[in-house]
Amino acid sequence: MDSTVEVQTVDSSWSLPLPLKEYAMSRVTVYFYSDRWVPIKYCFLEKAILLYHKANLEGKEILLFPDNVDPNQFSNSFN
User: What is the DSSP string of 2-69?
Assistant: First the structure.
């Protein structure tokens, strides 16, 4: 029996890399969705990523957007 293991990798453009260190202090807005996007907190990206992971562990979904982007403007265009 051959004991070698074949490892397959997928090259995908759908990866989301962590931000570069110089962007860690960029201000973002944390949103959750309830019939519309509701801002719940403004914070630095580094802290927002930690908050995202904590929420994910609790089964909650939050999204992060740049401080100058309002996701409600985009979702209204799809209705």
Answer: -----------TT--PPPPGGGTT-EEEEEEESSSEEEEEEEEHHHHHHHHHHHHHTT---EEEETT-
The residues pairing with 43 across neighbouring beta strands, listed in sequence order, are 28
Q: What is the pLDDT of residues 12-61, one digit of tens each?
A: 555 556 667 777 888 999 998 888 888 998 999 888 888 888 988 998 88
pTM value is 0.61
Q: Alpha-carbon distance 12 to 65, whole Å?
A: 23
Q: How far apart are CA 53 and CA 44, in angstroms?
A: 15
